[in-house]
Model the fold of this input.
Amino acid sequence: MASYQPLKGITSIRDYSLNNSIQDSLLEYFDWALLEKGNYFNVTKGELAPNGQDMSQLRLSSNDSYASGQVWEGFRSNWIWQSGVSGVGIDPPIVGSDPDNPGISGVYIDGNFEPTSGVGTYAHHVDYFNGRVVFDNPIPTGSVVQAEYSYKYINVVYANNVPWLRQIQTETDVPNENFREVSNGSWNVLPESRLQLPAIAMEIVPIRRFKGYQLGGGQWVYTDIIAHCIAEDDQTRNMLVDIVSLQNDKTVYMIDGDALDASSKYPLDQNGSPTPSAMFYPEIIENYNGGNFRLINTTVENMKMTTPNVFGGIVRFTTEGIKPTI
Done:
């Protein structure tokens, strides 16, 4: 007599899927591993770029989702909030040491320091992912807002059809003379909609293969990945390609997203600010380990770019992991 057989490999449609777990884990791994290799630059108060622009001064954002004077952004996004990191031979990132308040300690308003933990007129939070300071209430638009912070040089992002759905933003190594012009076209694009270079954009390819693991159940699962390596010069593009492709045969640990979600231990909150005692990647995989996979069959190929003066390379590889329950 025939009997009903439930779906295997999935407990609930609300759980993390295998594809998403692989992609999330790859991004978190490369982001942290690059940080350990010195993937950041520090910006101190009043520090001048070679063109004479103050790198620490934030620009007034034109984001229509906020009141004018409420959001101020840096010339680079993806600020660092993790402490205890130090690249070889360089100063550590500019972050505080208080585990209950990770990240930068505050901002300067017209030369006066205002702590992130403060209240009142200048109460604010820092959106690290988008590289901006958001005040609880608008401040005068003529204010001079400065911050000491560190930003990640190489951005590791989800592809999401990059660069075709997001605007590539070039020449962002320093703020130019138009940076603080609110109506300037290249800087008027919201941080969420622009891609600053150099960048490694990861995507899952909808191709999968299986191989039996052992008698009685379980399978090897093979998932194809593409890493788009994009830069403003061929030497940096080549470096990105090397960084990714040389990880062939590397084992990467997966994050158990369901367990992390259930414990509400995500490092960043909905505002892009670190939560109290936020965990770093090594702590996350130690406490919320979802198994591992190996990077194999890595190949490199050229990437045709439609944007002038932008260089691209593609690294293709396969993740090999075991699903014992299918």
